[in-house]
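Notes to self after the call with IL:
- keep both proteins in one doc
- input above output, always
- annotate only the second one for now

Protein 1:
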Amino acid sequence: MELTHTRILVDRYKECFLFYRDVLGFKVAWGDEGSNYADFEFGGVKLGVFDRRQMAAAIGEVYRSDKSQTDRFALIFKVEDVDRAYEEWKERVDFITVPVEQEEWGIKVAHFRDPDGTLLEIYENL
C-alpha cells in the first residue's frame, strides 16, 4: 500500500481551488475551478481538494454544514487491488463502502475509518 496524497474536504471548493492555485502557486495536476475535485503538486507532495458534499455522498453519509460533525480531511492510499484488500481486511475493518468503480474519476475505491474516526480511502486506477 502506498500513501499517495492527503485530501482536504472543503465547503467552498472554487475559492479553495483559486487559493491553492493563485495565492500559494501550487501546480494543478488534475481538475479545474468547476470540477469539485483537484490535485495540486508542490515540492514532491500531492494535495487533493474535494467538495465535502460530494465526499459525504460518496460514502453514503448526509452532508452537514456543522463542521464539527463532518470530515475535514481524508488519507488516500493506492493499493494494487481494492477487491483483494477489501476481502483481506473486512473482518478487521468496518468498511463504510464496498469496492465500487467511479468511472468519472477513473478509479475503484472503498472507504473506512481508523479507530479514532479518521476517513481513509483505498483506491486503484481503472
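Protein 2 (the one to annotate):
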Amino acid sequence: MPVHPVADPPEQQDPVRLPGSVRRRHDREIIALALPAFGALVAEPLFVMVDSAVVGHFGTAQLAGLGVAAALLTTAVNIFVFLAYATTAAVARRVGAGDLSAALRQGVDGIWLALLLGAAVIAVVLSTAPGLVDLFGASGTAAPYATTYLRISSLGIPAMLVVLAATGVLRGLQDTRTPLYVAVGGFTANAALNATLVYGAGLGIAGSAWGTVIAQNAMAAVYLTVVVRGVRRQSGDTAGGDWWAMLRPDAAGIRACAKAGVPLLVRTVSLRAVLLIATAVAAGLGDTEIAAHQITLTVWSLLAFALDAIAIAGQAIIGRYLGAGDAQGAQAACRRMIEWGVACGLVLGLLVVAGRPLIGPLFTSDPSVRHALMSALLVVAVAQPVCGVVFVLDGVLMGAGDGPYLAWSMLVTLAVFTPAAFAVPALGWGLTALWWAMTLMMLTRLAALWLRARSGRWIVTGAAR
C-alpha cells in the first residue's frame, strides 16, 4: 500500500502560467494516479456486461429481467459513491499532514460505515424486491427473473460498498494501482464464475447472480486484507496489540464519516435525477428517440469515465496538498488539472466527431435511430471540453472537502435543467434539443464550480476541514 510523499511546496509562481518544473511534476502526479484509476473505472461496468452476455443466451425474458435488476442494483450502490469520494479526501488530507495512522483510522471508519449501510440496503431490497421490479415496469415474463437476480445479488451489496470505501482509502494514500489490479481480478473471476455456475452447474440467471456476489465479496476481502496489513505495518506490531484497536468500530468516527458524506449524497442523488428526467423526456419523444438517447447516454457515460479519472487524481492530490498546509501547491495543481480537463475534453470531442458514422452501426441497424443519433452525438462532442473542466473542478472541490457547496450547486443545476428538459416536448423539439438541455446542465455546473474555484474559499488547509 504505497504512500507517495508530499511534494515540496512550489516556489513562488506566476498566477497565470506555472513554471515548467512545476507543470511537469503535476503532470507526473496526474498521470500516475489517473491512468490506473481509468482502468479501474472501466473494469467496473464490465461486470454487468459479462452477466448480460451470459444471460442473454437464455432468452429475451431473462435478459430483460437482468436489465431491470441491474439498473436497481446500480442505483442502490451508486448513490453511496460518497463512500469513495469522502474517504479519499479525508485520508489524503491526513497523509498530507504526515499522520498516516489517522489516515488509516479514517479509512477504517469509512469501511465500517459501508458495512452498516450495506446491511440496511440488504434488508430493504430483500423485503421489497418484487415491488421494486414492478415499479421499474418489468413485464410479467421478465419480473420473476428480475426478482431472483435482484434478491441474490443484493447479498453482495455490503461487499460493493466496502469496495467503494476501501478504494477511497487507497486513493487517499495516492495508490490507484491496487484498485486497478483488484478490479481486473474481480472482472476475470466474475466471468469464470458466470460460465461455471450458469452453464456448468445449470443455475441459469441465479448462477449469474451468485457469480457476481462471490466475485464482489472476494474483491472486498482483498481490499480488507490490504487495509489491515497497512494498519499493522503502521502500528509496528504484527503479532497483535494496538493495531486491533485501530480496526475496532468507532462510533464518533463513523458518525463523522456519515456527516461528511451527506452533502455528497445530495449531489449524487441530484445528478441521478437529472439522468432519470432526461430518460423520461426521451421516452416521451418516441421509440426512435429513446433508443437513440440510450445509445448517446452510453457514449456519454464512457467519456465520463475517462474524465472522471482526472477528477479522482484531483481528489487525492488536492487533499494531500491541503493537508500539508500548501495552499499555493493546491492552487497550482488545480490550474494544471483544468488544463488537462480542457485538453482531454477536446481530444474526446474530436474522437466522437470522427467516430459518429461507426458508433450507430455498433448498436442498431435502424436507419431512423442512426439518423437521430448523429445529431445528438455531435452535441455530446461539442460539450466535451466543458465536461472536462466540470469533472476536474468537481474532483478538486471533493478533494478539498467542499461537499456542502457541491450539494447546493447540484441542486441549483437540477432546478435549471428540469424546466429546460420538459420544455423540449412542450415546444415540439426533438432529441438534439434534449441533449442541448444536457449541455446547459453542464454549463450551469461549470459556472457554479468555476466561481467557487476562483473565490478560493475551498482552500482550507490542515489535517481536517
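Annotation: The first helix runs from residue 20 to 43. The two ends are 25 Å apart (CA to CA).
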